[in-house]
Amino acid sequence: MGDLKEAHPRGIETFRKHLRRMRDLRTAELIDEARRVGPAARKRRRLLESATEKLGIDLSSIDELHDKDWDLILKQTAKQQKAAIAFSRAQRARERQILRHVTKQRARFEHKSGNPHTSICLWRATSRVALTFTPQTFNDGTATLLTAPLGPQPSVGQNIRRFSAEVIANAAHDFHLSPVAAADIFTSHTFETTVQQRGVLSVVANYVPSGTIFIGAPGDCVFPGSAGAEGLLFMLVEIETADGDTIEFPLGATRTIVDQEVRASCDGASRLVQVGTKNGVAHQLTHRDIVAVEPGDLVRVIAGFEFYISAALRGSVRATFDPQPSGLNVPMVLVKIDS
Questions:
Q1: What is the pLDDT of residues 37-66, one digit of tens each?
Q2: Radius of gyration of the chain (CA)
Q3: DSSP notation for 160-177
């Protein structure tokens, strides 16, 4: 496992272990499928080679056609990527415009008249955003964190982590391997505030992802591959009391924002997934009526993203959230206290 991170706050590790187990099971399924499909494909390949040899057909010429098809897919994807970057820039400009408008009217969001209600907007994370990259490979698969800049210090509405990562299930045409590659990518964006009044706590977190994920597999009539990507949002809350105790709470709601897969046939298959917001300037998760709080309690909110990218039998995936305007941003967390 490769980790690039700061120390996670208490409470997050239980969730991380749950995710790791879930992703380990998913990777094990891919490996079992590759182990099952690989030997059968090799037998079909030998039969096909024998038949084409008798007919005087060079099977390598068919492999060349598959390679040319894959090269064309990659060229088309490069054009799509340019269009996606232009779209992201326009979306980012719109988000900044909205942010300026919101911060100008922040008094309306930060209603602090005391009883019966107080809202506290947390615009700045406590530190740079943490990132964990966990590769999982089998046979000739590779999983690589291509870039992982430390990122800027958090500023108002800009709590961003950028990265790009790739998994490739390499395999030569001799089909001696049944490769699988996968990676789990996890970010945590931590916000803190001290409560000034007694009441019942609720939390709303906002998420603004911006990037692309390419998933694809070259065609092969005998040994077709597959690739997929999943992504979710999560939020956890914990409280440090004035007496020094730490109260950890069950995970709040999660939301899946990416769930895509392609499976090649004789022809290659690919998809460029635009990761962003579709119906507004941010996704939201809400954790309502969590617990009663007292003056002096420190409320800690950990909001973040988790992506799982995987490929099998010559498939490949590249997640691109770097450079600007791409990135994973949690611009604001709203803490509400109702008496």
A1: 877 777 777 777 677 777 777 767 667 777
A2: 24
A3: EE-EEEEEEE---TT---
What does the alpha-carbon distance between residue 181 and residue 169 come to, in Å, rounded to a whole number? 5
Query: Of 233, 252, 251, 246, which is closest to residue 299 (Cα–Cα)?
Result: 246
The burial of 43, by beta-carbon neighbours within 10 Å (0-12 exposed, 13-18 middle, 19 or more buried), is given as: exposed
Contact in structure between 299 and 190 (CB atoms under 8 Å): no
Residue written as token pair 């691109």: 320
Which position has the token pair 């579709």? 278
Residues 6+ apart with CB under 8 A from 225: 169, 217, 218, 263, 264, 311, 312, 313, 314, 315
| CA–CA dist 48, 62 (Å, integer) | 11
Give the whole-angstrom CA distance, residue 326 versus residue 320: 8
Give the pair of three-digit tokens for residue 61.
């010429």
Q: Are 325 and 166 a contacting pair, CB within 8 Å?
A: no
- Over the stretch 241-291, which tens digit does the pLDDT of each residue have? 988 888 888 777 789 999 999 999 888 999 999 998 876 678 999 999 999
Q: Give residue 3's pLDDT.
A: 45
Query: Contact 191/203 with Cβ under 8 angstroms?
Result: no
Give 80's Cβ-side CA count (13 Å radius): 16
Of 55-59, 146-150, 234-238, 293-297, minimum mean pLDDT range: 55-59
CA distance 298 to 10: 13
Give the sign of the dihedral formed by CA 270, CA 184, CA 259, CA 203: negative
Instruction: Return the structure tokens found at 2.
Output: 């490769």
Token pair in block for residue 337? 């206290």
Measure the CA angle with vertex 249, ends 129 and 253; round to 5°: 70
Average pLDDT in the chain: 84
> Which three-class secondary structure state does DSSP give residue 129?
coil
pLDDT at 11 over 80: no
Q: Per-residue confidence at 310, pLDDT binned at 50, 70, 90? A: very high
Compute the C-alpha angle 160/162/165, nearest 5°.
150
Structure tokens at 51: 């038949």
